């Protein structure tokens, strides 16, 4: 039963990644095909886990050794896959960070409120900046590469970055500086958050690292217990000795 619930959770998480349009995950999902592939993998693993839980229950109730063996094998494959995925993420974290920087940098550079084709992606990034209270990926300076702001001599700034109370009702697009000192300005003149979104995301991960590791460890321990119980039950199931059946 647990693995059926776990499978439903994994399946739902994969579907959420594909359907989500209002968080940082959506920015990655729209910009990187690798995340979409990961979401489909999660959906497949979730469906397999639900099927595996059903087979395990069926094998235990009816004492079917082949189903219990299949249950054990699937658990082992999933556990090995989880460990491998964790190692890949750990050893490739710098590469992943570079990929994220490239994705977000391109988004900021080409951000255009008048571009309806990228409206969903841009609205999502605005949402991220408002929720995390950040600006740009490494900082507000990233927005100096935006073509529209360059043409406006930096006398405008992204509204979703604003730390000013007057911009609270404006959640997207660009806002005008009230009193620019000159006809040109820099990001230092903008009333925006100083923290970059990369630091905000990293801080969130650090704050929730204990919970994430706890959940992953708990799932791994339960999977190990399931493997031990299934193989023990499989060994205790004795095949019928048909040699003792009277011949007709």
Automatic annotation (TrEMBL):
TM ranges: 6-28, 40-61, 67-91, 211-233
Superkingdom as given in the UniProt entry: Eukaryota
Cellular component terms (Gene Ontology): plasma membrane
Membrane topology classification: Multi-pass membrane protein
Localisation per UniProt entry: Membrane
Keywords of the record: Membrane, Transmembrane, Transmembrane helix
Main localisation: membrane
This protein's record includes keyword Signal: no
PANTHER family: CD82 ANTIGEN (PTHR19282:SF44), TETRASPANIN (PTHR19282)
Similarity section: Belongs to the tetraspanin (TM4SF) family.
Protein name: Tetraspanin
Organism: Dromas ardeola
Underlying gene: Cd82_0
